[in-house]
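lol ok so funny story. i was supposed to be doing the assay writeup but got distracted and ended up predicting the structure for this chain instead. priorities right. anyway since i did it might as well share w the group, maybe its usefull for someone
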Amino acid sequence: MDYSKLFLVRLYNEYRSFFWVCIVFIIFQFMFSVKRVQNFPFFTFDMYSRPVEVPSKIKQTTIKLDDLKFDFSQLNPWTEYTLINTFDLFRFYKLTNQDVWAHTIIDRKNKYFFLKGLDDHQLINAKEDYDKYPKWVFDFLENSLNTETKKNSLEFLISTYEVKNRVLVLKEEKSEFKINNNEAN
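and the output, tada:
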C-alpha cells in the first residue's frame, strides 16, 4: 500500500502547519468524545450512548367509572389524549385563578400583529366552558365508545407509582374530583 497518497501524509508534506492544526483538532475531539462533552461540529448523541435512567416515581391519570377503573385500550390514542389533556386543563383551572393567567395570555396575544385577528375564546376557555366540562366528559365518552353511558359517576385520580426493580408499584392514588351523571346534566 502506498502511504504517500493518504490525506494526512499529503497534508504533512504540503502544509505542515495545517497538518498540526488537524492533529490537535483530532486529539481534542477524541478527548471531548471520551468525556462526553458536546462540541461543534461533532455531537455526542447521549440518548443512544448511555444507559436509560429509570425514574423513581411515575404519575398517571386514571379514570374510574362507577368505581371501576376505565380501560383506555377501548379508546384510540387521540381520544385518550383529548380526555387526559382536557382533564389536566380543567384541573389547572380549578387549582388556579383563571383571571390571573388568562389576562397574561390575552395581553401577549395582542402584542403580535399576526395573532390580533384571533378571538380571545380561541386561545382560552371562558369560565362558562369550565362549568360545562362535567357534561362534556360524559358526552365525549358516550361518543367515543359508541354506546350510551349508563354510568352514574366518573372519578379522575392521580396515581403515583414507585419503580422498584423495574416494576411499577402503586404507592398512592389521590382523587382529584368526582362527577355524578345527574349533576352533569
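The helical segments are 7-14, 16-35, 46-49, 77-95, 98-111, 127-131, 133-145, 181-184. Residues 57-184 form one domain.
back to the writeup now i swear
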